[in-house]
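Internal tracking record. Fields below are filled automatically when a chain is submitted to the structure queue. Please do not edit lines marked as system-generated. If the sequence contains nonstandard residues, flag them in the REMARKS field before resubmitting.
Queue: standard
Priority: normal
Entity type: single polypeptide chain
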Amino acid sequence: MDQSMSRQTVPGLLAAAKRPNAPAYIQGDTILSFADLDRLARQAATGLAALGIGKGDRVALWLPNVPAWPILYLACCHLGAIAVAVNTRFRAIEVADIVARSGAKMLACWPGFKQIDFLGILGEIDPAALSGLQSVIVFGETPQTTPRALERLTLVAYDKALDHAPLVNSAASPDAPCNIFTTSGTTKAPKFVLHRQGAIAAHAARVARAFGFTDGDTRGLLMLPFCGVYGFCQAMTNWAAGAPLTVMELFDVERANALIEKSRITYLLGSDEMYDKMLAANPGDIAFPSVRWAGYAGFNTSLLDIVERAEQRGLTMVGLYGMSEVQALYARQRLDAPAAERKEGGGALASPLAQVRIRDPETGKLLGHNQPGEIELSGPSLMAEYFHNEEATREALLPDGFIRTGDLGMTYADGRFAFLTRMGDVLRLAGFLVSPAEIENHIQNFPGIEASQVVAVARPDGVRAVAFVVLKPGASFDENALIAHCKAGLANYKVPAAVIPVEDFPRTPSANGAKIQRNKLREMAAARLN
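SYSTEM-GENERATED OUTPUT FOLLOWS
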């Protein structure tokens, strides 16, 4: 039975809901059932086909969390087309790169969203980058004027695109490519991760079972963006279980807390920063009584105690693991595990067909349990390829069906694995692989330290760790005292050669929050030491 899941299509997954008239998408006064989503997606498919969209064509979705996102996505699946996720925070240079390299034939946007002139941004793009673009679907109120650079394009109101009879003969296929997610790169152009319908649908169904969403009482809140693999996988998994999903257009702390109470939400997915803000804004001893568990990704090193603080307020938080190449929600920690275990990224694999192994990055040998090395993964949620990038695909996908993740981690005898850090962030000190988090956690136990980041710098006397710290308000900085603190609790080779105070760490935006630019920190550290 589990093997057959990979032969499912994305539209078929949602159309198979046991209660087709039950609520699927809830946003304010908008309530769409599973049958509504299917009907509207088929209508949109007819509209997109009339605009020339067919098998293999790319459609860029530059939209916030509105019904148009899943409806247009499902329409693409019906046509055998590929939806390209575009972050609404992206601007001219980033959008130009994605549209040009993906060869998008159509783009959907909301011109007035958050008072941002999305069409104006498109108008700033070099026409050569938009040469393959033929039409734009406009959600919301159609603007009165169009930038001259876009006059050659066909602009169609979203409602007009839906004003068609539903598509009868769907071209959806398990083998059809359907999703392109962009990886977040800081030194290289983002890669385009391509997935097929069978992988998307099968992963959603398996995660729904593994996470207990199929118990008939699941109610989710989407606080994450559809455009990121994290939010996308939450939506697909929730719907695979036939459960209602309350959708936030954008994350807002007060609104999220109110919706949790109003809709009696049973689980949450988000980041450590989101939960920190939500707990602070909730005055009750038991923060969210209806929530059984909250999955999280850790982005902020100053929030290392978030799991313990949440537990004191009755909220069970668990670490997750995922990446665009194997989709989000690939693994989750046990709900009944101690906090120290639940804090780790990783956990038990969601699919019984998935596998994880650890390889020594220098010798190439596979490692046993509790030995850190590069994480390699396999399973039915694996990407098809990096779109139009054969070289990167060959480097990542191994002949036996595993993918190199670029992540440092280790496996445990009980079947779990732990994510430690990115391989590019690993410190090779005195011949040992060291996760920067180990040093960062120790530094953050020192009074007055709000957050820390540690990188490595090569010097004539060897590779040394260098720490950057953000101080708590009003705290003073004593580098010698902090280094002495490290010497007292860490092996000598882990002690930073220097500690540099900064107001904040350099960051780059991503769909789920800003990521720290460690490459920039390495440049700053090298300038300080050399």
